[in-house]
Amino acid sequence: MYTTRSTTYRPAGTRAGLADLRGLLNTALDILEEAAAGRAGPVAPGGPRAAREAAGRVLAGPLLPDGPADPVAVLHELVRPYAEWAVDVTHPAALARMQPPPTAAAATAELVAATLNQSLHAWESGPFALELDRWVVARLAELVGYGAGAGGTLTSGGSVSNLMALTAARDDVIAAARGRYVFQEGLIDIGVQPVILAPKGIHFSVARAARLLGVGEDHVLTVPVDRHGRMIPEEADRILGSLPGLPGDQVAVALVACAGSTDLGVVDPLPEVAEVARRHGVWLHADAAYGGGALFSERLRPMLDGLALADSVTLDLHKFGWSPASSAALLVRREETLISFGLQPTTCLSADDDTCAGYIGLQNTSLQTTRRADALKIAVTMRTLGRAAMGAMVDACHDLARHAAARIAAEPRLELAAEPPLTAVLFRYLPAAPLDADAFNGALRRRVMEEGRALLARTHIDRGGGRTRVFLKLMLLNPGTTPGLLDQVLDMLLAVAAEQEAAELRALGLDPAAGAAREAAATGA
């Protein structure tokens, strides 16, 4: 305990601080229970305007007041509206994003990590946290099928994992071809133009990584896909074979494969793609941020056959994994490829006395220096649930997706984009002509969210002829949802859509009862 002129500072990890923490935690839990009891849907109604107004009322005061305030009062001032306006990820109609409800054990581990505030950049910042982090990374590497010599790091999410993977790919491939490291000399001095290949439908973070790495979005080459959205390995082979003949000194550094795309759940033919990558000396990166959940399921795991052939894998445990964000990982088949981030050998032939004595941190395996101890909540979650339970939870979500798909396919006014290989279900409502289906579905989504009835995502799907259509997305990551609850959500969506359709037709001076047939709407939208 430290006393200043204005207040008493009681760190959370001291005996006095832990007593304070217990009382404040009970206050916070009381607030969360009250907020939960007052919810009628997955989010408070009113949409963006109401959320801004609520925030404006609460945040009218200064961030840093002149004097101290009672922490209980501050919790009531800030935690209460935070909870009241939080998305209820446990609600069956919270279907928009990849935010599964975390386990209570995981949330507890998060509190412990925050209380003890360990870091991973140096041994003296968190000795056990470092060992736990290394152990979790090693076990996750085994989960994807990597053997001895694998490595990796925990990250804040799939976007950072993809950025790090493509950084390692750029440096590793160019070093092998030219004997020189980009991270030392830069692209101009080495005189090459890196090229990345990826299928249509890959996550947008790949293009963003190309920007940040100096590759440029124009040098992310799209590999054609088949009618199921899967990369065609022969097309990747063709493009890679044509690169030496293109203008400029281009070097293909990475071939990125989907291992569960966020829209359609597409998994590229990983063994065949890996063969192409090896033939051309290109780094293969597999983005399994979402699809990696299939690894827990005996039913779905065969979808990811060949994942261990990739040079790197992105994996998110805060999608499938029921751990709070951030709980993500970049895993690499060869640990030494993390040299781009400063990884150095730890033998005593080339290390200082601290390193020889085992005082080693993880600052050289990550983009971050100070880094929170995310491994604790991952380890607590996985050990608490166990393999069988996690597999059953994944299967339950997959069963919900198949149930939703069957229900949607049976509804005359709904169109299913495709059968879901994982747990994302894409569909749209088919309004009567002359209503535009894209505008209608966009408005339908906004309406149910503003009314607090449901949270849905939206995306654009290629329906042939170079034209895309707006589709709504159900993201099913809550194994506590039942088919009956999901039916209630779909019933509600159909009812709201029918009301909206009638209102829009009347606004055009048309009789809703004399609307055009479904086929006319589908072809004329």
UniProtKB/TrEMBL annotation:
Its cofactor is pyridoxal 5'-phosphate. The keyword Lyase applies. InterPro entries: PyrdxlP-dep_de-COase, PyrdxlP-dep_Trfase, PyrdxlP-dep_Trfase_major, PyrdxlP-dep_Trfase_small. Pfam families: Pyridoxal_deC. The keyword DNA-binding does not apply. It comes from the Bacteria. Keywords: Decarboxylase, Lyase, Pyridoxal phosphate. Belongs to the group II decarboxylase family. PANTHER family: CYSTEINE SULFINIC ACID DECARBOXYLASE (PTHR45677:SF8), GLUTAMATE DECARBOXYLASE-RELATED (PTHR45677). This is Pyridoxal phosphate-dependent decarboxylase family protein.
